[in-house]
């Protein structure tokens, strides 16, 4: 956003330099990213002054030249050779001094040097208007009617001096500062000066010969709509002063009517629009929506198809403008326009944002409406525009002001705790200072006690809705730099984090996964709702929809990490990178019955070969246990403790796999992605996928390390081969073993699984190894044999196992 310093000084008095004002604004949250110089004319008339011709005599060696002496405010007069026919003693003239540069209209710039002309010394140049770039005349030098002292810069006389322009990085929450008046409002609090609003007391209705009726059918989208007619205008170029103001902030003048609407927008922050009154069919404005698919040609000549959520400004027959966004080609002001209807309204930010996004339209008006304008500024801006139109284009106000405002927008009431305000600021600044800042910012104090201030916050302060926001307003004006830092830093408040080491734990786990050959990916949490269609209506209904999406492919928040990872797999596989191990830590979202839930998930993907082909061994396809090993080690590192392993059930994306369950909560799921899901995403390869409930695991994580003394006695291994039903899992066998023997049994491992024609159908054989150890003494054969017999008995009893000899 560009702000003219000269324009700003018309609204608030200050003797400070542009650099000092820039520093104040930055400290108050309006970051000045740069201060540029804008010259009203090229070069800014630098080095060009007002002088007085003291003497004028004919050049002895040239009939058309004169030798003059000119007082330019220096210790001695300057001798200047001049060829203008109208030069004479006693004149006040414009002088380009030695070393100044001239930028003549339509010519190349040149530097003034001390020189000799036909033998006579010349120390400067007396200028015509085209020679300094302010006009086209070259009939003679300019003769000024002024009493200004000799040596006065000519830029001041012509009102063409340089302007300083602030480039402000306006943050989305500071819609109140999106104008010169808005910035001046902050300076009012910073400088303790009063803002000078443009005077509109001279506004009057000259006649009512051209009334325009207004009907607002959608007051949700347009809570306030006002307008007035000005007749007898003459469209043409704006006056030079207005053009210069607009050019200073990067706008190109168009004509006096359009320039007035732009001028008021950037002055007061209230967008306006001017319609050709003769093109308003039926002399009636109707603010409404239209049927989907209605075509409308905007000012840029593009024909657009309208949506049922586009608010349109219509006449009695057809649309004329997209409310708050863009005008129409047919109803705009042209050179033939003689009567105009000026619109000033307050449009709902949500409606304008949705429409602007849908049509890819971003204008100065929509920029402000989307963030929130001031509904109380509507009439003031309308009167200001009408007066300016009369000033620059003539005409008369030919209707009463129409103001449709059925439900006035009220100020927000906020109760400010004085003690908590000082606590949040971190320093006592005094109640009177707080009250002065609030008053200067336009926040009304409606009540006061020893402990609280009752405040009424105007609606243009769109980001001030609660006590903490008010404190932020006070602090940014008081100045963060004025908060003293004690030698001994302390705090009176510490947040209760569930795990103060969450970042460290996360970094440890991420490093472990990466060390196992996985590459981290970061994907968009906004995704395509079509991905979830095959899973059914219930899945689609639980999605969190994006209200103002920019693309049909990015219209919902992801409910699962599956699809964003598959997008990455597809892209890599299409580029012949087929052996992939990826992981991502990200958020997922869902909604049920209007309640929204956000949670964090750790996802892992494996596809292709897990080992590369070499002379020592053939390549090996990634398998379930390759991913399961990593997941189980992650759970161990997170001290997940004992957890159950269950068959995966009710999963929309994996057709087979397991779930790790602890305290009836699924902490991880692991399996192969359903072929239909992968192929829907154009991934033909088999994909192993795991998803961990990261929020739960971090919440339950306890940083406890238990160290055991190194065993003094040897461990013993015994092997068993068991034939069990096909549905019996290793996890079940392991649980039975540890339930039977808690003291001596240190570990159970499966080193072979067999299914085939050598055993009964519906059965499978596990080859298990058992590690036994007594930490107090050496195990004897008798104890070992007794332990193994008890294990075999329970395997037979509880799981129907048959022990193979």
Automatic annotation (TrEMBL):
Mg(2+) binds at residues 463, 469, 472-473. Residues 42-155 form the TRNA-binding domain. Its EC number is 6.1.1.20. InterPro entries: aa-tRNA-synth_II/BPL/LPL, B3/B4_tRNA-bd, DNA-bd_dom_put_sf, Fdx_antiC-bd, Fdx_antiC-bd_sf, NA-bd_OB-fold, Phe-tRNA-ligase_IIc_bsu, Phe-tRNA-ligase_IIc_bsu_bact. Gene3D superfamilies: 3.30.56.10, Bira Bifunctional Protein, Domain 2, Ferrodoxin-fold anticodon-binding domain, Nucleic acid-binding proteins, Phenylalanyl-trna Synthetase, Chain B, domain 3. The keyword NAD does not apply. It holds the Pfam family B5. It comes from the Bacteria. The keyword Zinc-finger does not apply. Residues 711-804 form the FDX-ACB domain. Keywords: Aminoacyl-tRNA synthetase, ATP-binding, Cytoplasm, Ligase, Magnesium, Metal-binding, Nucleotide-binding, Protein biosynthesis, RNA-binding, tRNA-binding. It is found in: Cytoplasm. Its main location: cytoplasm. Tetramer of two alpha and two beta subunits. PANTHER family: PHENYLALANINE--TRNA LIGASE BETA SUBUNIT, PHENYLALANYL-TRNA SYNTHETASE BETA CHAIN AND LEUCINE-RICH REPEAT-CONTAINING PROTEIN 47. Belongs to the phenylalanyl-tRNA synthetase beta subunit family. Type 1 subfamily. This is Phenylalanine--tRNA ligase beta subunit. The lineage of its organism: Bacteria, Pseudomonadati, Bacteroidota, Cytophagia, Cytophagales. The gene is pheT.
């Amino acid at each position: 956003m560009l702000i003219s310093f000269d324009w700003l000084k018309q609204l608030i008095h200050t003797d400070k330099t542009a650099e000092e004002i820039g520093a104040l604004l930055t400290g108050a949250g309006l970051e000045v990213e740069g201060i540029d110089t804008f010259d009203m004319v090229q070069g800014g008339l630098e080095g060009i002054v007002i002088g007085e011709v003291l003497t004028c005599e004919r050049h002895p060696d040239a009939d058309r030249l004169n030798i003059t002496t000119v007082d330019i405010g220096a210790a001695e007069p300057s001798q200047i050779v001049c060829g203008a026919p109208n030069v004479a003693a006693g004149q006040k003239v414009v002088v380009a001094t030695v070393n100044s540069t001239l930028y003549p209209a339509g010519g190349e710039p040149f530097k003034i040097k001390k020189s000799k002309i036909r033998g006579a010394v010349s120390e400067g140049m007396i200028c015509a208007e085209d020679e300094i770039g302010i006009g086209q005349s070259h009939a003679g030098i300019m003769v000024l009617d002024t009493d200004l002292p000799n040596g006065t810069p000519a830029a001041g006389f012509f009102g063409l001096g340089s302007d300083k322009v602030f480039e402000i990085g306006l943050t989305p929450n500071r819609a109140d500062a999106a104008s010169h008046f808005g910035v001046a409002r902050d300076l009012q609090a910073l400088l303790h000066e009063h803002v000078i609003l443009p005077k509109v007391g001279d506004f009057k209705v000259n006649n009512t010969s051209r009334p325009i009726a207004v009907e607002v059918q959608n007051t949700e989208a347009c809570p306030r709509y006002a307008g007035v007619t000005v007749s007898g205008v003459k469209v043409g170029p704006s006056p030079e002063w207005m053009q210069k103001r607009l050019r200073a902030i990067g706008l190109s003048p168009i004509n006096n009517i359009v320039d007035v609407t732009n001028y008021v927008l950037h002055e007061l922050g209230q967008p306006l629009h001017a319609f050709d009154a003769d093109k308003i069919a039926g002399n009636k404005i109707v603010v409404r929506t239209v049927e989907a698919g209605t075509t409308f040609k905007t000012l840029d000549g593009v024909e657009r198809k309208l949506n049922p959520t586009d608010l349109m400004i219509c006449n009695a027959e057809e649309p004329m403008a997209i409310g708050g966004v863009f005008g129409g080609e047919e109803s705009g002001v042209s050179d033939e326009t003689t009567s105009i209807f000026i619109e000033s309204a307050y449009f709902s930010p949500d409606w304008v944002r949705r429409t602007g996004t849908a049509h890819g339209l971003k204008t100065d008006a929509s920029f402000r409406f989307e963030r929130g304008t001031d509904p109380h500024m509507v009439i003031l801006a309308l009167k200001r525009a009408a007066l300016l139109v009369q000033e620059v284009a003539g005409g008369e106000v030919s209707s009463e002001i129409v103001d449709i405002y059925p439900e006035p927008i009220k100020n927000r009431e906020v109760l400010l705790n004085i003690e908590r305000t000082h606590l949040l600021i971190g320093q006592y600044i005094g109640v009177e200072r707080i009250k002065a800042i609030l008053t200067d910012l336009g926040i009304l104090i409606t009540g006061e006690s020893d402990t609280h201030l009752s405040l009424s916050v105007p609606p243009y302060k769109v980001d001030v809705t609660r006590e903490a926001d008010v404190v932020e307003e006070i602090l940014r004006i008081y100045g963060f730099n004025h908060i003293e830092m004690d030698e001994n830093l302390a705090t009176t408040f510490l947040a209760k984090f569930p795990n103060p080491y969450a970042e460290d734990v996360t970094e440890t786990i991420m490093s472990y996964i990466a060390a196992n050959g996985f590459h981290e990916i970061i994907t968009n949490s906004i995704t395509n709702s079509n991905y979830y269609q095959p899973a059914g209506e219930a899945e689609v209904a639980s999605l969190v929809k994006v209200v103002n999406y920019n693309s049909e492919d990015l219209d919902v928040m992801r409910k699962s990490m599956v699809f964003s990872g598959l997008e990455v797999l597809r892209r890599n596989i299409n580029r012949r990178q087929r052996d992939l191990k990826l992981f991502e830590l990200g958020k997922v979202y869902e909604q049920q019955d209007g309640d929204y839930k956000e949670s964090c998930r750790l996802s892992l993907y494996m596809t292709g070969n897990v080992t590369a082909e070499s002379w020592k061994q053939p390549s090996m396809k990634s398998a379930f246990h390759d991913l399961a090993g990593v997941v189980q080690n992650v759970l161990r590192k997170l001290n997940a403790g004992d957890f159950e392993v269950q068959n995966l059930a009710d999963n929309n994306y994996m057709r087979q796999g397991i779930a790790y369950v602890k305290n009836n909560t699924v902490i991880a799921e692991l399996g192969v992605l359903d072929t239909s899901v992968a192929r829907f995403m154009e991934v033909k390869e088999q994909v192993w996928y795991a998803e961990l409930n990261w929020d739960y695991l971090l919440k339950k994580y306890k940083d406890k390390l238990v160290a055991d003394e190194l065993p003094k006695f040897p461990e013993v291994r015994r092997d068993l081969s068991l034939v069990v039903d096909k549905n019996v899992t290793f996890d079940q066998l392991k649980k039975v073993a540890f339930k039977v023997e808690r003291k001596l049994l240190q570990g159970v491992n499966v080193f072979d699984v067999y299914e085939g024609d050598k055993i009964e159908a519906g059965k499978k054989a596990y080859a298990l190894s058992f590690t036994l150890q007594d930490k107090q003494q050496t195990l004897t054969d008798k104890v070992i044999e007794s332990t193994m017999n008890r294990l075999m008995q329970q395997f037979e009893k509880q799981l129907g196992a048959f022990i193979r000899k």
